[in-house]
Amino acid sequence: MTTEVSVRHNWQHAEISALFDLPFTELMYRAQTVHRQFFDPNAVQISTLLSIKTGACPEDCKYCPQSIHHNAELETEKLMQVQAVLEEAQAAKTQGASRFCMGAAWKHLRAKDMPYVLEMIQGVKALGLETCMTLGMLKAEQAQTLSAAGLDYYNHNLDTSEAFYGNIITTRSYQDRLDTLGHVRAAGMKVCCGGILGLGESRTDRVSLLQTLACFPEHPESVPVNRLVRVAGTPLADAPELDAFEFIRTLAVARILMPASHVRLSAGRTEMNEQMQALCFMAGANSIFYGDRLLTTENPQAEADKALFAKLGLYPEAVEMVSDDDCETALMQRIATEQDKAFFYNAAESGQ
Ligand code: SF4
């Protein structure tokens, strides 16, 4: 018999640590039990991510190839034209995505870019897709403007614990991040906020990151859990690989702490085999990006995702333009017939 789980916002560090310390199968069982109380355990939310402005970012995030402070090989791209973005969104919708995420490598949103951003939001909304953007730091009034234009989600990751943050980023503070997240909430938008594992942080840091997220007055609706992609030319290119079980444990604990949130298996999937991804889904991950690039790092090809979904009996969470019954079929058919087309469109190859 299972006990009904309630959504809590008062998680203590020691409680979270104790979850991490559970025997692996016990932790997985608990995470699955919680997951099934809040979600269909075989449904996975599908998002498509487009980089609308790539590279030349003034921030110094040590993991990121888009930072001007590092020497990663990356072709920079100016802000895409609105029409090009809308064409990508239409293609994503046709292929089964329910949410279209647009990311720009900016420290903060500038006033001169706002009109274009608003046009993108309104255009993508008009296609019947949920909209998500990540544009760097926002002022309160900017968050209000984006919300009024119809932006559903704002992505702004905390990356790691407050204590470890200074080891990874020096050009902004943890409080800067929290301030923007507060503006997003105050404007009525949903929050997409998570972190990156394998930055050299300790388990205590992972516990602290999850505690911060789980103690927000409202949990982020989406919690992306990224595994560091070690990109040549970045300061973390040679970082030691995080143990796979530790990554899966973190996903499972996130599921238990934030039971009603979508926990997204995000960057780093390319370096995970099918078995590891299956364990991630069992741990409670129920959201992924489809496609072949995730902003500027590799993401498994749509065909590989299709094969894995079929093996595991997973299906996309219902999307607006098809009925629940038709959803899986529609997406799988699209994948099957579009084998040569990536689910994620490379901003470097389209528009400007
Ligand atoms: S993670 Fe974002 S803010 Fe940090 S350097 Fe990369 S693009 Fe800029």
Write up this protein.
By secondary structure, the protein is of the alpha/beta class. The protein has a single domain (about 20-345), classed as Aldolase class I (TIM Barrel, Alpha-Beta Barrel), CATH 3.20.20.70. Helix content is about 40%, strand content about 15%. It has helices at about 15-20, 25-40, 80-95, 115-125, 140-150, 160-165, 175-185, 205-215, 245-255, 275-280, 300-310, 325-335; strands at about 45-55, 100-105, 130-135, 155, 190, 195, 220-225, 260-265, 285-290, 295, 295-300, 315. The strands form two sheets. Strands 1, 2, 3, 4, 5, 6, 7, 8, 9 and 12 form a ten-stranded parallel β-sheet that branches. The chain has a two-stranded antiparallel ribbon with strand order 10-11. It is globular and about 50 Å long. The model is unreliable at about 320-350 (pLDDT under 50). Bound molecules: iron/sulfur cluster. The site of iron/sulfur cluster has 8 residues, from loops.
Topology summary:
Blueprint: H1 13-21, H2 24-38, E1 43-53, H3 82-94, E2 99-104, H4 114-126, E3 130-134, H5 140-149, E4 153-155, H6 162-165, H7 174-186, E5 190-192, E6 195-197, H8 203-214, E7 222-227, H9 244-257, E8 262-265, H10 274-282, E9 287-289, E10 293-294, E11 297-298, H11 302-312, E12 315-316, H12 324-337
Parallel strand pairs: 1-2, 1-9, 1-12, 2-3, 3-4, 4-5, 6-7, 7-8, 8-9
Antiparallel strand pairs: 10-11
Bound molecules: iron/sulfur cluster (SF4).
Iron/sulfur cluster is lined by residues 57, 59, 61, 64, 66-67, 105, 136.
Pathway: Cofactor biosynthesis; biotin biosynthesis; biotin from 7,8-diaminononanoate: step 2/2
Pfam families: BATS (PF06968), Radical_SAM (PF04055)
Family: Belongs to the radical SAM superfamily. Biotin synthase family.
